[in-house]
Design a protein that fits this description.
Shape: globular
Order of helices and strands: EEHEHEHEEEEEHHEE
Largest sheet: 7 strands, parallel
Radius of gyration: 18 Å
Length: 305
């Protein structure tokens, strides 16, 4: 069992930062989690049967930048994030809720994210109409955004769309970003989102995590076992399980998976209702010296910390 999920055999020996879902049964309701990311690569055994047909926001577009990024920095990111939510247990790679389904929406590749593409990706994930895009027949109940780095103040266009999504009672979970103690940027600074920072196994906030009193909660974000693809000695790309999950972008899907697990039992649970219940699903996290006014809380299925 991955350390971040806790321990089945010895719950009292779980890592201090574990979210303790290991012994929590999945409910009867299937939950769709939209993953707005780099896409999910096909053929990984740990994701077999876990991924729906999504949408590629970049399909047919010519690159919009002169210098393309190294594909190794983004190509497998969505696959890795997906496995933390819905990994089926192959190679010991369990997600938080293997009964959930991932709806991949490819938003980024070699160039910077276009704002219009972000807005369209969010709208499509929520089942809202998008020009020239097919209808989304499996709208998400949870939307995961494992990236940050937009404006210092949430733009009116983005906030208005998030308000429309909130009106549909859809959860939006976003990473705070690996900005080493800086304040939140979009989309984590927008009203109504669940912003997620990163912890180490000992329940300490990671130095790379953004720091802000507005951060909703924290989850494990280091040494996480993920599904990925790597090149072997012969140059062929092979499916692997690797402990390379480090960053707030890997903490966010643990929260998305956690929420999907609750929704599998309570499909009508709304974001506002869950936020009211949040104290029952969090533990205290030591406040860092760099943010003395922060009152950080870590995610856990075991109340009473």
């Amino acid at each position: 069992m991955p350390w971040q999920l806790g321990s089945l055999a010895r719950p009292h020996e779980a890592a201090p930062a574990a979210i303790n879902t290991a012994g929590f049964a999945m409910g009867p309701h299937e939950v769709v989690v939209a993953l707005i990311d780099s896409g999910v690569l096909p053929g990984h055994p740990s994701l077999k049967g876990q991924v729906l047909a999504g949408y590629d926001m970049l399909a047919g577009q010519a690159p919009k930048c002169e210098t393309e990024a190294d594909p190794a920095k983004y190509r497998t990111h969505g696959t890795e994030v997906a496995s933390l939510m819905v990994g089926n247990g192959e190679d010991g790679l369990w997600g938080v809720n293997p009964r959930a389904k991932v709806l991949p929406v490819r938003l980024f590749g070699p160039c910077e994210i276009e704002r219009s593409d972000l807005l369209h990706a969010l709208a499509w994930s929520a089942g809202l109409p998008v020009p020239q895009a097919p209808e989304n027949t499996r709208p998400a109940q949870v939307i995961n955004l494992s990236f940050a780095g937009g404006r210092a103040v949430c733009g009116d266009d983005l906030q208005a769309l998030l308000d429309r999504i909130a009106a549909k009672h859809i959860f939006v979970v976003t990473a705070v970003g690996n900005t080493t103690g800086k304040r939140l940027l979009e989309p984590a600074n927008c009203r109504g989102v669940i912003s997620v920072g990163a912890l180490d196994a000992e329940n300490q906030i990671q130095d790379f995590s953004a720091l802000d009193t507005r951060t909703t909660l924290y989850a494990p974000g280091t040494r996480l076992r993920v599904a990925t693809f790597e090149h072997n000695w012969f140059g062929f790309e092979t499916a692997r399980a690797s402990d390379k999950g480090v960053g707030t972008s890997y903490a966010a899907p643990l929260v998305s998976g956690f929420i999907s697990l609750l929704l599998s039992h309570q499909p009508t649970l709304t974001p506002s209702e869950w936020m009211a219940q949040l104290p029952a699903y969090t533990r205290a996290v030591p406040a860092p010296d760099k943010c003395p006014t922060c009152v950080p809380r870590g995610l856990t299925m075991t109340p009473g910390y």
